[in-house]
Write a structure and sequence with these properties.
It is a single chain. With 280 residues, the protein is of the alpha+beta class. 38% of the residues lie in helices and 31% in strands. It contains eight helices and twelve strands. α3 packs across α4, α5 packs across α6 and α7 crosses α8. The radius of gyration is 19 Å and the shape is globular. The model has no long low-confidence stretch (mean pLDDT 96). Keywords: Acyltransferase, Transferase. This is GNAT family N-acetyltransferase.
């Protein structure tokens, strides 16, 4: 038997669930980061809830956009608990268009949601969440890391467009241009530069109490297999650790053996399988 609590105040929600989420900051980096941003901007999301079992939180749910609900890393919930959650969720959020979270629970929950709302569940993306505490490898190329600036926009716009195409999150060139501007202005976008040419990029996002997440790691196809992405991520990761973060985390496409190999060589260790499921 579970208790399903829905919240209306984002500050009250954060106060209630933060200690649970911070038990595993890296695995919960998406939910923690989004929640912190909501609090800072004083914005109320579409949906916030916590699942309680035996007087303890077992799962946290957050929805900021119609297309998906973010699920935290869960504690032990039985199949009966998950089925009950599916029923309560369908009664509360209509329609449910997608879920993102730990693979096993999210897949099982999606099955019950599909049955209850009469939709078909499709796997949109499977990823691995990685966590790093210490950089292991040394730099391999003669490049250098530098912050991306406004004059780099034409290059970054194209890279953002290609990155989103390759990660199955397509967007228009106009939107890619806007996203590139946003990333540059935020100040966390860096690039690996070799002989005056940018060859790879990465950014840092969703800072939490002890962790920050690496994202938008991209190397154009003509510069791959040269060690540039490895050096870019490795050097940037070390700088983030030097700035005070205890850990860094990142998502990697489960079907991409190259990126998974590169991240493990740097020192990233897999901590959770994540899945995105969409309903049709």
């Amino acid at each position: 038997m579970i208790r399903f609590d829905k919240y209306e105040s984002v500050t009250a929600f954060q106060k209630e669930v933060s200690s649970f989420l911070e038990q595993d900051e890296a695995a919960n980096n998406l939910l923690l980061g989004v929640l912190q941003s909501l609090v800072e901007q004083d914005t109320t999301p579409l949906f916030m809830a916590a699942v309680w079992k035996n007087h303890d939180i077992g799962l946290v749910l957050l929805q900021t956009q119609p297309k998906q609900i973010i699920l935290s890393k869960p504690t032990a919930l039985s199949s009966q608990d998950i089925q009950e959650l599916g029923e309560k969720l369908v009664q509360t959020v209509q329609p449910i268009l997608g879920l993102i979270g730990e693979k096993k629970l999210t897949t099982e929950l999606a099955r019950y949601v599909s049955q209850d709302q009469g939709t078909r569940a499709n796997v949109h993306m499977e990823q691995i969440i990685y966590k790093l505490e210490k950089v292991k490898n040394t730099l391999q190329t003669n490049g250098k890391l530098r912050r991306v600036i406004a004059s780099d926009h034409p290059v970054i716009k194209e890279w953002v467009y290609q990155f989103c195409q390759e990660t199955n999150q397509p967007l228009s060139l106009e939107d890619a241009s806007s996203k590139a501007t946003f990333l540059i202005n935020k100040g966390n976008l860096v690039a690996w530069e070799v002989n005056g040419e940018l060859v790879s990029m990465a950014t840092a996002t969703r800072p939490t109490r002890h962790n920050i997440t690496i994202s938008y790691v991209y190397t154009p196809s003509n510069q791959r297999k040269k060690g540039y992405a490895s050096d870019c991520v490795s050097d940037y990761t070390q700088r983030l650790l030097n700035s005070g973060y205890q850990t860094t985390s990142l998502y990697a496409d489960q079907s991409n053996p190259t990126s998974n190999y590169v991240y493990r060589q740097i020192g990233y260790e897999p901590i959770m399988d994540s899945i995105v499921i969409q309903f049709q």
